[in-house]
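Appendix B, record 7
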Amino acid sequence: MNLNFAFFVMGEKGLVSLSRFISQFGAQQIAFVVSSEDKAVKHDFFEEIKSETVSHNIPFYSRKNYSDSLITQATITVAIGWRWLIRDPGLLIVFHDSILPKYRGFAPLVNMLKNGETEIGVTALIGVDEYDKGPILGVERISVDYPIKISEAIRIVAEAYSELLLRITSDYLSSGKLNGVPQDETLATYSVWLDEKDYFIDWKLNSVEIARFIDAVGDPYHGALTRLNDKVVRILDAEIRPDVQIEQRDRHVGKVLFLDNKLPTVICGSGLIKLRKYEDATSGQEIKEIPFRSRFKQCPIQ
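Structure tokens (predicted):
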């Protein structure tokens, strides 16, 4: 069976999936590819997706120059990492960063890592009017151990994306149909979009939660934030340290307790965390030394 696929893809997951699809099924199966730059990450893979597409003589469009009328060229539309409405896509297959129906919505992988989920994964589903509610076509599950940084989780999930895409495509090319299973609405949870305030560390949390948070919003995202005196500081790397008994701990949360080779160990709501790498969030310059009498604070809620 010969079909025309339209790909709306972003990020490392989109690139890996697109590349493997071309290798497995050939560029002739693809009508066009659409991608977009992403200012929310340091490396958005936009140029790599464009290069991969153009090198195989596949029509490529950025989100800015894509026209809705092009969708009529496609039999099946595939969305990977895509965050915008695709008008009149016909048969739409959406790939989502969670094991649905849990973590529907936005930033699911980040939120799963923040919550310490021991199993992450990806779900392919048929796109419907309400986001992430369509029948499930397939799931890839991955067990993870902590600590794990978001960059490593993305790499693992990108492979799961491509495996699931190839499996579903093979099934469809051989049978000519997609068999979706309805989701159990009683198990549904929602993952909410994040803005800049959500990247600030809440020092009242325990050290395990804070360490997971720092790892979950690190590279390729811009990193966990905190206030230090009149500066906003970005925490890039940290480790959990053994706790000690602190008198009136609640009064001292966020304070530096120890300095080890100029690296501060900070008092958390419970536990301690050692900050190993940090920078000025405005200039991006690495901070070499923090005074002993320092206190890290959460961004004021406005």
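Remarks on this record: The chain has five helices and 15 strands. The chain has a mean pLDDT of 94.
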